[in-house]
Write a structure and sequence with these properties.
117 residues; mainly alpha
Length: 117
């Protein structure tokens, strides 16, 4: 996920003249950190007890909501990023990275089911 995110950011900033590099980078970092941390927690929970993955996801949800609220506030007010490119980047990376996480979770779940047979 990290490699794909960084590669996409490099490609986008290279292809778009005058690209808002800073806003796009910060728009990527928040969702990437959240998905990476949650994926590590999901994998650890799955190794311990596959039945605990849902509990981990439910516990992580409010933490992620607080993280994202603080992150967006920090980016827009604290760092003074321009809202439109930051929010566009944030939304695109958020959707893309959570789609990747959902795909990986589905693979993890189906692998666990096959192993149980």
């Amino acid at each position: 996920m990290t490699t794909g995110s960084m590669a996409s950011w490099f490609v986008l900033t290279a292809l778009v003249p005058g690209a808002p590099r800073t806003e796009w980078l910060w728009g990527m970092i928040g969702p990437l950190v959240a998905v990476a941390v949650s994926w590590i927690a999901i994998e650890r929970a799955h190794r311990r007890d596959a039945g605990q993955v849902s509990a981990v996801l439910l516990k992580a949800f409010p933490l992620k909501a607080l993280f994202f609220a603080g992150y967006v506030a920090l980016a827009l007010r604290g760092l003074g990023l321009r809202p439109t490119p930051f929010i566009a980047s944030f939304a695109c990376y958020f959707v893309a990275l959570y789609a990747v996480e959902a795909f990986l979770l589905q693979r993890l779940s189906s692998r666990g089911l096959r192993g149980a047979r």
